[in-house]
Automatic annotation (TrEMBL):
CDD domains for the chain: REC, trans_reg_C
Organism: Pelomonas lactea
Name under which the protein is recorded: Response regulator transcription factor
Domain of life assignment: Bacteria
Domain OmpR/PhoB-type: 121-224
Response regulatory domain segment(s): 5-118
Alphabetical list of SMART domains matching this protein: REC, Trans_reg_C
DNA-binding region per Swiss-Prot/TrEMBL record: 121-224
Residues that bear 4-aspartylphosphate: 54
InterPro entries: CheY-like_superfamily, OmpR/PhoB-type_DNA-bd, Sig_transdc_resp-reg_C-effctor, Sig_transdc_resp-reg_receiver, WalR-like, WH-like_DNA-bd_sf
Keywords for this protein: DNA-binding, Phosphoprotein, Transcription, Transcription regulation, Two-component regulatory system
Pfam families from the UniProt entry: Response_reg, Trans_reg_C
Length: 229
């Protein structure tokens, strides 16, 4: 089993080019980034199904990048790096990587590691992992029981996601719900900042993964059951 999309973050251009070609032959759509900041600046940064991460990267180092990814996505993360030592293994696994491969490594081994991790992450979420929006109290109830006080804008956004039942919600629909005008062209509508503040509000309150992700050229999606109560 392989993911549909994969981000390859490695500054070794020759290595990443040939690895990307090999994985694409396995049916995976690969996007290459030679700088961790380039990935984080991408509108699809947290929407890939899988991530292959080197540790020695320009910009944010590999370990910090894994920590950032783990706050935004439950996608598979495999480290492929030339750094050795038990302390390195401990560091990357603690940061949230699923597997650690040491260069030099055969492309077939990388492909097998991706398939093994993907089998785990592709399992459906537990049936009781339900998020709830309490409209009476204006709180979001996390599956672990944490209750998070929401702003009015937060509540409006989450009502949209609850109504969408796991489907993506367009930027236009979210802006309409917030009572904002849809801008022409490239004008900043402020929606990204509003979504960011909502994510940060949840992240500060609970270690539970926030299932709110961007959907390239569409809008945003809440990838977990969300009920109105």
């Amino acid at each position: 089993m392989h993911p549909k999309t994969l981000a390859l973050i490695d500054d070794d251009a020759e290595y990443s080019e040939f690895l990307a070609q090999y994985l694409q032959e396995q049916g995976i759509a690969v996007s290459r980034f030679d700088d961790s900041n380039a990935l984080l600046a991408s509108p699809d940064a947290f929407s890939f199904d899988f991530y292959l991460v080197d540790l020695m990267l320009p910009g944010v180092n590999g370990v910090e990048l894994i920590k950032i990814l783990r706050r935004r996505t439950d996608a598979g993360v495999v480290v492929v790096s030339g750094r050795l030592g038990p302390e390195v293994f401990r560091e990357v696994i603690t940061a949230g990587a699923d597997m650690y491969l040491v260069k030099p490594v055969q492309f077939e081994q990388v492909s097998l590691a991706i398939a093994a991790v993907q089998r785990r992450v592709a399992k459906p979420a537990a049936a009781d992992a339900v998020w709830k929006l309490d409209r009476a109290s204006g709180e979001l109830v996390v599956p672990d029981g944490t209750r998070i006080q929401l702003s009015e804008a937060d509540r409006q956004l989450l009502e949209c996601f609850a109504a969408a039942n796991g489907e993506p919600v367009t930027r236009e629909a979210l802006l309409h719900k917030l009572g904002r005008e849809v801008p022409d062209g490239e004008a900043d509508d402020g929606l990204s900042a509003t979504i960011y503040r909502l994510r940060r509000r949840i992240e500060r309150a609970t270690p539970t993964l926030v299932p709110l992700q961007s959907k390239s050229r569409v809008g945003y999606v809440f990838r977990a059951p969300l009920q109105l109560i």
